[in-house]
Each structure stands twice: as C-alpha cells, then as structure tokens.
Amino acid sequence: MQQIERGIHYEDAFLGVTLGALTFPHGVILIDAPLRAEDTRSWRSALINQRSGPNRLLISLDAHPDRTLGTRALDCTIVTHQKAAKVFRNRPTIFKGQNVQTGADWETYTDAIGMRWAPPDITFTESMSLHWGGPEVVLEHHPGPTPGSIWVVVPDVHVVFVGDLIVMKQAPFLAFADLEAWQQSLDLLLNTYRNFIIISGRGGPVTGEDVRHQQKIVKEVSSGLEALAKKNAAPEDTEALIPGLLSKCNVPSDLRERHKQRLRYGLYHCYMRRFRATGLIVQAESEDEEQ
Q1: What's the rounded Cα separation, in Å, for the pair 270 and 118?
Q2: 20 to 30 A from 204, CA-CA: which of 9, 121, 227, 281?
Q3: In angstroms, rounded to a whole number, what is the distance separating the alpha carbons of residues 214 and 194?
Q4: Is the pLDDT of residue 53 over 90?
Q5: Per-residue exposure over 255-277, b if at least 16 CB sit within 10 Å of its own CB, e if not
Q6: Residues 97, 114: Cα–Cα separation, whole Å
Q7: 287 lies in some domain
Q8: How close are the terminal C-alpha atoms of the chain, in Å?
Q9: Contact in structure between 282 and 122 (CB atoms under 8 Å)
C-alpha cells in the first residue's frame, strides 16, 4: 500500500484494478474492491494498521466486474453512480461469467464464477460530498469509459482517482465507451486538475504526459471507427485497427494476446453502438446504461 498524502493511499499490486483507501477519523473510504479472495484478506489486513474510525464505505468507480465482483467480501455500504447501478439490475445474483472473451482480468481468475454480486446501496447523479472528519471527498460523474464512470476528488490535498479514464500499459475498455465524452473528460482533467495527483484505476499515479497519450489513443479509436463507417465497413473490419492501437498502448509482450482480445471485443461493440442500427450505418444515440 502506497501513501499519496497523509491518510490517502493506493494499492496496485493485486489482480484487477488499482485500489484506493482514505483513512479518516470517522472511518475508511474504500475505492474499488480486490478481485481475488486472498487479495481482499490482504487488503483488509493492511487497512487495520491504519488509524481511522470504525466505519467503512466503498465507492465503485464504475460497474466493471474487475472492480465490483469483490465488493460483497468487503461487507460495507457501497456507493456508485446511478447509471452504474442500473447495470446491476440486469445481472443475476450469482456471477456466471460470459460466453465471449472481453479481455478483462476477471477472466484469468477461475474462482470468479459463482461469486455473488453486491448491488450498490447509495447512488447519485451529478456529484456527492463526503465529510468523514478529514478533508472533503467529492464524487463526480465523468462519463467516457462507461456511462456511469465517476471520479473521487479530494480537493484540499489535490488528489483525484479517475478509474478507467486512463489505463497504463494496457488496452482501454471500449465496449461501452462514449468516445466524445471520454475526450471531454480527459480535456477537463488536463485543464482543471493540472496540479492534482492523478491516480489511474489501472496503473496508479499518472502524469500529464500520460493523460495526453491517452487522448491520442482515444482520438485514434474515434477517427478509425469513423473512417470505417464512411466505407460502410462491417463491424468485423474493426479488427484492422488493433495492431496500431496495441503498439501505442505499450502492453507487455506476455499480455498482448489478452489485450488484443480486449480491443477486438471493445472495438466491435463500440462500432456497433455508434454506427449500426437495424443493419444501416447511422449515428447512434448515446446509451443510458451498459448492457
């Protein structure tokens, strides 16, 4: 567990997403959950050694299984965005996995099948403030990677957790992305949060250069899909974009196949949502929730 500021920590050593913990006099505010049971035990043990009050609150930065499958094991109140909460209404109580491969980390963890979801207890629409005896903590809605993506901002100490808005040395998740909103959120991060310590949901602290690099990747995805749409290309033709994107994502060689599949799945579904409806090329309306 790495300390950012007094009482503010992150952990990027577990399978899945980068975790956060804000330890205040009222209790611990957790950001996302470990995927594996053994990591949950390690995470809880590490938090016991932090001076904080008795209460626990868990914030899910979106509804992705990598960050939400392990929430039940943390046994605390869960907060997320209203649109992320809608996703759980279409999920069975027990996680059964998927027939298709999405390139997510949970797919490498065999014990994920059979885990029980913990739906959120509290939701919000635009923003929400928490006062737990330390600096104010603000939850903000910033769509892009998913319609229900949020950030956790601690303004007084200039720290912001941004989830999958930025991913380090891996391919982004595109299946439910709103690419225009993603670019807008990245622009906002550079212009308004330039003096903040930025914590990626997959990789830990990032720099302004990392944010600009993510902008280039999202822009390339958008222009590539638009070019295919102008040619009335089939959704399967999005696979031609994978080599160029994969090279820009700096994926380690031993993980390239998984991230190639992540892009294959994501590009296909992003193209379908954005440009296809009843077999015709159209400009798709923005979605209200993930499928």
Answers
A1: 27
A2: 121
A3: 15
A4: no
A5: eeebbbbbbbbbbbbbbebbbee
A6: 8
A7: no
A8: 34
A9: no
- Nearest residue to 87 via CA among 173, 146, 19: 146
The rounded radius of gyration (Å) of the Cα atoms in the chain is 19
Run of H or E including 273: helix 256-275
Task: Give a yes or no: residue 24 inside a domain.
Answer: yes
Examine residue 179 and state whether it is found in any structural domain, yes or no: yes
The pLDDT confidence band at residue 110, using thresholds 50, 70 and 90, is confident
Residues ≥6 apart with Cβ < 8 Å to 96: 113, 114
Tally of domains in the chain: 1
Residue 32 near residue 118, CB atoms below 8 Å: no
- 195: three-class secondary structure by DSSP: coil
**What pTM did the predictor assign?**
0.90
CB-CB contact of 212 with 190 (8 Å):
yes
CATH of the domain at 167: 3.60.15.10
* CA–CA gap between residue 124 and residue 26 (Å, rounded): 21
